[in-house]
């Protein structure tokens, strides 16, 4: 008789450490639901949505400069002084023509930004829903879906504004200004304290944003508690990634080629890692309540013993007559057989 196969080291570690088993199950869910594919798609739509937003920003700057002719004249003088005569004149003409076309640029930018934003939100919500649910979620209709996505964009814009405001309050510059206003001398220890407070505020702000994204953007209601835990994990990972990205930019921007292509590549990597992190944490939240070891097994239903008692009332009258007739026929046949044999 062969002995049962011994469990591998990974199975033993998963059986011993619940968090490791949870991470592996989350990654399996993330991989089965094509999380990397969704993250790549989100990166594409994120980069694509930036260009119309830049057009809108450029149009807003054009409207502001059109009302400040003195500031526009100073900008033209700076361009002419910094660049040669011919090239400077061409740049000034380009700036002035762009300002004159601010209305058309703004309309095109807003239209394209609305379309790109709805596509971005639709794919983000589809990816988050796929990480949460196994079955296909029925669509309420094209118009209702787009209205829901538009409302989600407005809510996300509001949440981002709140997070940016909180992040600005946690920055070191306002704290240093408060110290100068209070007349407190600057010490090096304050730099470390302010930096720690800034990182803590950034994590809390990112926690708010990621919790709302994971828990409220899917097209079906999900667990808020699990979303908060996943949002905290995503916020910590996002802050670590930001620190690494800042070091990357400092190293890359030192060379001319890095200064040219580094920000673009960095933006693409930043968008992909952020989308990957959010989707993985969503899969982690979705598998938080699926640990088979955490599920209680219901006891079986109580056994009901019901013996059946059947009384033997003996042979009935018909059965008795049938038995007598069968016996008589058998005796008659036996007697005839013995006579023939003689």
Task: Summarize the helices and strands and which ones pair or pack.
Elements (H helix, E strand, L loop, with lengths): L8 H8 L1 H15 L2 H32 L2 H14 L2 H16 L1 H31 L9 H28 L2 H11 L5 H29 L7 H29 L3 H31 L30 H25 L1
Describe what you observe in this structure:
This protein is mainly α and 342 residues long. It has one domain (10-132, 141-286). It is 79% helix and 0% strand. It is built from 12 helices and no strands. The chain has helices at residues 9-16, 18-32, 35-66, 69-82, 85-100, 102-132, 142-169, 172-182, 188-216, 224-252, 256-286, 317-341. Helix 1 (9-16) packs across helix 2 (18-32). The two termini are 69 Å apart. Residues 291-296 have low confidence and may be disordered.
Uncertain segments are: 291-296
Please identify the structural class as seen in this structure.
mainly alpha
Helix content: over 70%
Oligomer: single chain
Number of strands: 0
Distance between the termini: 69 Å
In short:
The protein is mostly helical and 342 residues long.
What would the keywords be for this entry?
12 helices; mainly alpha
